[in-house]
Amino acid sequence: MPLDTSTYSLALLRVDGRRWNELRRLHAQIRTQAAADGSSYLEMGHTKVMCVVTGPSEPGPRRGGGIGGGAGGQSKDAEVVVNIVIAGFSSVDRKRRGRGDKRTQEMQSTVANALAASLHTHLFPHSQINVSLHVLSQDGSLLAALINAATLACVDAGIPMTDYVAACTAGSTSTYAANDESADPLLDLNHQEEQELPSLTVATLGDSDRVVVLVCESRVQISRLEGMLAVGVDGCKQVRELLDRVVREKGQRMILEGTVEKGTGLNDLD
Amino acid sequence: MASLKRSHALDPLAANISSKIYVRSTKSGKVQKIVREVYLRQDIPCSSRLCHSCPKNAPSSAAGKPIPFVLSEAPAGTSTFPQGHYLVPDTNAFLTAMDLFEQESAFYDVIVPQIVLEELRNRSLPLYNRLISLTKSEEKRFHVFFNEFRLETYVPRREGETVNDRNDRAVRKTVAWYAEHLAQTKAKKVPAVVMLSNDRENLRKAKEEGIHAFSMADYVKQLKDGDKLLDMIPEIEDRDDVKEKRLGGNLYPEYFSMSKMMTGVKNGLLHQGIFNVSPYNYLEGSIRVPAFPKALLILGRENINRSIDGDLVVVEVLPKDQWKEPSTQIIEEDAITKNENPDADDAEDVVSAKERKALQEEVKRAHSKTTEGHAQPTARVVGVIKRNWRQYVGHIDQSSVSQSAQQGRKQDTVFVIPMDKKIPKILLRTRQVAELLGKRILVTIDAWDRSSRHPVGHFVRNLGELETKQAETEALLLEYDVQYRPFPKTVLDCLPKEGHDWRVPQNLDDPGWKDREDLRHLNICSIDPIGCQDIDDALHSKPLPNGNFEVGVHIADVSHFVKPNNAMDTEASIRATSVYLVDKRIDMLPMLLGTDLCSLKPYVERYAFSVIWELTPDADIVSSKFTKSVIKSREAFSYEQAQLRVDDDSQQDDLTKSIRILMALSKKLKQKRLDAGALSLSSPEVKVQMESETSDPIDVKTKVLLDTMSLVEEFMLLANTSVARRIHEAFPQTAILRRHGAPPKTNFDELANQLKVKKGLDLSVESSRALADSLDRCVDPKESFFNTLIRIMATRCMMSAEYFCSGTQAYPEFRHYGLASEIYTHFTSPIRRYADLVAHRQLAAAIEYEPVHPSVRSRGKLEAVCKNINVRHRNAQLAGRASIAYYVGQALRGKATEEDGFVMKIFSNGFVVLVPRFGIESLIRLRDLAEMEPQAEFDAETYTLKTSGSREVTVELFQKVRVRVTDQKDETTGKRGVKMELVSTY
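^ inputs. structure came back:
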């Protein structure tokens, strides 16, 4: 069924009942895999991804989209290698995507770039940080979900980093062709909206307005872009809060359960 | 090991999140399960101005603009609800009675539940679009309430519950919530919330739940002017009935196999012919087959069975009890299928209820007739031998477009309404609906499956905005398949290298002068319309010592420049004719030739092909001579200038004298022709006057006939006839000639009967002479135009003239009926007609000026050429007419004038009026006569339509009426057309 964006103006409600500036429900967990160095599970609406971080470790055979470091990990910086696997069952139609899929490759390199900007890779020369992302279910804003999950997993892995890299998407209520000047910006698009409307993915570093990722693959009037970006950056801050809460809650629980030494102090976490 | 499973209890938002799960099947037959999130909320306002709580948390847009509250604090009441009421209609109510909701007298303060809006969109896009525009209009106060997103009104589907039942329940829940919510406002008069539904089960459940609910009819009865509105509620369809019909997957009967058709045709059981659609009724077609003198009727969608105007089809005659009269009703596709949904092509039966109704009336009428004689044999199409599909120009039906399609780049299915009314709507899948809306577009038909009600096509090209000169002109050219692209380089390479500097060589030994006669000393002049640049013909005359006259017709020698079988010749043979539009001319030959080197311009020497006769003072031919020549035209006159010169007695120069001789001779020639039975036929011709600078049309003038026009015409006819004889003599098998078949008598049956009944006049059609005479007798002393009207109508009964190759017909068949000439060809306009060019080559070969070129002797090739030029010629005429019609419409734009008109054709629900002043004819339907369609009684025997009720008039055939002519842009089709309204009858 085609998305009917015309009803938006009737009551300012989106197809799933959200307002223009509302995120979907974001649910996340960290340390989901005890055996891994770092792991996370993240849901943004019905987009569900899982992330496992291995490393920093000795570099293995090179594959995937690696950022930082030279060939064979001989450089002074650790290399961030991201590998994304999109499950065949993740979208409506069962579809196999090969390893060489160009879209997947691009996402790998985007995620690797984003992480490399925040992780203190210079602390781990001649090594490699492997980030494995598994997409279990897709419902729009996939890249944003991947970045968020990778951030959480890196936090879990204990790799020093400047701040959270929090991402979300932003769009606009009318299409490029409609050229509607009064179009509202939208936050966090689902699959239906993403197919129809202009959208961009933005990621910022922590609380700052510093944009580390900005991907826009659709046509949109330049006049609308500013509003979209502003809403997107604002959304990233909300996402950061949510991620931060997840980390803190997990930390608290770990202290309570005694997984972590008391000495670190519950109070330090606040 | 940590569990990924999360407990919902921990999530504070869990209660507000639901999901919509449904299964859908794609076009390719795949079944998909879709899961969508639904966020339930409590800040969706009720939008009633009575409410104090909702405005506090009402949403606002990114720009901070809140949505205004629309529902009135003091809504109108009814007899049952004096305190006022809000309406909540369900989907059925909108589907059956959308017209009611658009009434101005009632139906204010309507709450449209979101689920109803969605259901409506799935059922009928046009209705959905109408509802959306209602919600946007401020005075009607329609509010869409998003019940599916409001926590209190959201209803999950129960186990075993059908979607329909669940949706009905959702509507009832909304009504209940509103009632409860409004009660909390503590207003003095709390309006009642009333559900409208035509579903008995839904109404019953509403009663059980204690909700106010009425059927449409019961509700309308409570209104003040209820009786009037009651008529607008259609009868409720039985749901089961509809469902049963849907089961049949294929809508149309299957075609016979090719071999079955072929043997059938051979045995005489089936008949083959070209399918034609009636211009007034898209559900009626006719087919002419050799076996019967009269055309067979094909009525209704199922019998037409997917054939499109122009297709070569095979038909089977239906049993006699199914024979019918041709329709006397106007049935237009636009009006009947307006609300069809392009996506739901599998949903309905092939013949929609409305169409069936329209046809039903027909059958009733046929049955009520006691006179058996009127019924015509009918047939049904059993197969198509050859499709005549081409590219069609049209535009997207605005109302078939969904809102999302207007915005998105997703593939969408819409209807394209072709410009040609005979072509059915075409289903088009496109991703660029937004760009194409309001544009003239070119589409082709790809297929028409048994399971699809409409043919499926694809988009070819965008011609530009509707109603812009450029787009409309290009549309015309494409629609009539006129080649209008610039000439390719290969063609231009065939032009003389000297270009505009080309001159007739001065040296008489030059090969160009070989066998050419030097006629430069003659007083030759040309007479053409004003501004004519491509002058094909020039004339001269001089008295001879023996009292006879020498008369010469000199035709541009195009064949000197266009040699057979070169690129230019090939291009010209494809184009076949120049096309004259109001503001544009599409040349058959490149400009250099057409308007300069070949054109017999004054004061310069030009090559010509001359026909020179010796005529007696009585205009009998003594001798004729054909020769290539060199001439020098003394003057290029316009018809008006020449006329003035002839009439001015002070002008006594040789040139004027020679024109006077020609004038005198031409009158005698004309008389001879008329005596032989030539018809003077008529067509309503008008001229559009343009503003010289902007070339915008400003006025419409009827053409004035001058004697000088008929002078030129007579000598051209004489030249054509002489040349025809000569080339037929030289090439009995391969001469290119033009014939005009005698029309079958049955063509005139209708007209003759009409004349007899209405005017007591007889039309005899035994021969062209008899017809010409009886046409002369058709006069109405009170109305001078009456004769012209009859001539126009008689012209439409004629066959069209055609080019042919002499070997394909027996000599008696060569006859030109209209001109009453035994033999005829076209010779005099080689610049703008390819047939003339061929005739030139043949004549040149006949007089042994040049050797016979194989291409002018090959019969097969000539037949192909004839076939092409016949089609092109016809298209060029149609394009010219359509162009005039378009400009007449533009000239009338924004003006309203009252004009006299004549009733040309009469139907049981309308009539056609011709306005001679503008040369336009247009339909006036009964429903155009008055606000409420008047009742009408149609007497087919006397051709009288008598209306009663809201407006009482009697309209008869041939009657003179006063009409108001305005222009009108049809909102659904985007076409600007002439609209006529009946002012009074005389």
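Chain B touches chain A through 50 residues (CB under 8 Å). DSSP finds 28 helices and 37 strands in chain B.
thumbs up if we can close this ticket
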